[in-house]
Amino acid sequence: xxxxAATPIGNLGDASRRLVEAxxxxxxxxxxxxxxxxxxxxxxGVANRPQLIALHDHNEKQRAPEIVELARTGDxxxxxxxxxxxxxxxxxxxxxxxxxxxxxxxxxxxPSAVLTALAVSGLPTDRFTFEGFVPRRPGERRSALQxxxxxxxxxxxxxxxxxxxxxxxxxxxxxxxxxxxxVSRELTKLHEETVRGPLAELAAWADAGVRxxxxxxxxxxxxxxxxxxxxxxxxxxxxxxxVRLKDAAxxxxxxxxxxxxxxxxxxxxVRG
Length: 272
Known about the structure:
The chain is α/β, with parallel strands linked by helices.
């Protein structure tokens, strides 16, 4: 079978007993970085020296069939550098190939930067979406964030320290300066820190420079209250048919008696 194993995201004390047992008995390990895995084995005092296969973003498509075949006759332990494989890390392609080939896949649960940052954010945790890294190019990043402006669920993002100030600034524009958020850095490590506040304040804080591995958690959009929802729906239907928003608001205003300006503003808010 394929065994996905979560590894510590910073603190070695978070290594589970099941992880240590799996590392101690594994004959084959597919790892994002074999050097990181060797250091993990040494740090945990594991004497086992399994066969190590590099499995990363650049070779997963090519190596997946070989690893699936190995898993037909024996277990293959799959590791990323930190956290759970497949979650913004290599492994998804391998799991998909294994499932298609009828090879069993199980997971050894453990540390997760996504869930850890979400839990300490102080934001709603009942519904959330993980968005991974936003695009690096400014224009693409702004477009991606604007597309999420009306997402009602709490959103979790990864970001690099060199880009976090720009990303938070773009989030303040796309989501609103007052939208609540948190930035967690160096989770479970010695200098762990979580800063919470409105996006505009977090962007200003990040301008001074931030170091370490980062997770951004952003509050979802609040439901828009519309005084005349049926009329606004008519406006949006016309817009979907190709009518300009201003013209659609004017047309529905003439039919319903509602203010054209109020219809325009309400439709704009709903559309995000």
